[in-house]
Amino acid sequence: MTEPSSLPDVSCETESAFGMSVPWRVPAFSAGAGVLAEHVPLADPAFRFEPAICRALLAGFAHNRRVYLYGPHGSGKSSHIEQIAARLNWPCVRINLDGHVTRADLVGRDMVLLREGRQVTEFVPGMLVWALQHPVALVLDEYDAGRPDVMFVIQRLLESNGRLTLLDQNRVITPHPGFRLFATANTAGQGDASGLYVGTQPLNQSQMDRWDIVAELGYLPAEQETAILLAQLPELGEQRAQRMVSLAGLCREAFRQSDLSTLLSLRGLLSWGQNWRLLGDDGEAFRWAFWNRCDETERPLVAELYQRCFAEELGGPLPEHGGA
C-alpha cells in the first residue's frame, strides 16, 4: 500500500516557477519525498526554460506521459528535466546508457552477501527496479547508445501499465504512482548521419512508437543564450556575451554548410565564459573551450569567425608562460 507521504501533495504554480501556464494541474511535493529528498536536484535560479520543451516535460510529470527528448549536445536536455524536478521537489535519478550498462545493472542480480556472519545468496535489485518502486523521475541519458538487450528490458516499461516481470524472482512489479520515465538522446531514433555522435544507433521503431511524447530541443535563439550566459556569468558583460553567442551562431552555420565538423554548444559557451573568468583573456579562454578541439584544417576558418566577432586576431597556440 502506498504511503500518503510518498505521493505529490501540493500543486505547482507554473507561472511563478516556469514563467508559463499549462491547462492542467501540475502536482508537486511540498518537501521532497521523505527519505528520497536527497535525490531532489538543486534548483538553479539562473536556468532559462524553453517554453515548448517545458510544456512537454510538465505533461510528463503531471499525466505520467513518457517523454523522449532529443537534440544536439549541450542544448540543455537533461538540465531541463532536472530543473523541472527541482521546482516540483520531485526526486530525480539519471542513468547514462553508455554501452557498458548491462541488463543485470538495471534489473538486478544474485549476489553473495554476509548476513549475521554467514554467506548467503540474495537477489539485489538494480537501479531500474528500485526506481520503479519509488516516486522517482528516472532519466535515461544517451538513450540511443544503449545495448539492444538493455533496450528490450526498458521496452516493457513503455507498455500501457508499465509492469516489469522479474523472471528470476517470479515477481511482477507495478510502478509506483509517482514513478515517471524520461529519456534524452542526440538523435530521433533514426541513427546519426552527421558523424558527430559515434556510438549511437538506430532504435527499434516499435519501441519509439511507445513513447507518448517526442520533443526536439535545439540550440536556443541568440537572445536566450545571451540571457543564460549573463544570468550565470554576469561579469561577462552584455557586449562580450553577445559576441560569444554570435560566434557560436556562425560556427553552427558553418557546420550546416559542411565547412566545420564541430559544434559550439551552449555548454561550450558556458565553459568559455568560465575560462574567461579565470584568465581574463577572450582568445585564450576560447582556445581552451573550443578551438583546441577543432580539426587543424578547420582552425583557420574558426579564427576568421572569431576575428569577425571580436575584431582581433586569434592566431595559433600561445607560448608557454609562467604565473601563479
Quick summary of this structure?
GO terms for molecular function: ATP binding; ATP hydrolysis activity; cobaltochelatase activity. This protein has 324 residues and is an alpha/beta fold.
Describe what you observe in this structure:
This is Aerobic cobaltochelatase subunit CobS. Residues 63-209 form the AAA+ ATPase domain. The chain has 324 residues and is of the alpha/beta class. The chain folds into 2 domains: 4-216, P-loop containing nucleotide triphosphate hydrolases (Rossmann fold), CATH 3.40.50.300; 222-310. The protein is built from 12 helices and 11 strands. It has helices at residues 14-18, 51-63, 77-88, 103-107, 127-132, 148-157, 205-208, 222-232, 238-256, 266-279, 282-289, 299-310, and strands spanning 10-11, 27-28, 67-70, 92-96, 108-115, 118-125, 137-141, 164-166, 171-173, 180-185, 213-216. Strands 4-7-10-3-11 form a 5-stranded parallel β-sheet. Strands 1-2 form a two-stranded antiparallel sheet. A hairpin with a 2-residue loop joins strand 5 (108-115) and strand 6. The model is unreliable at 316-324 (pLDDT under 50).
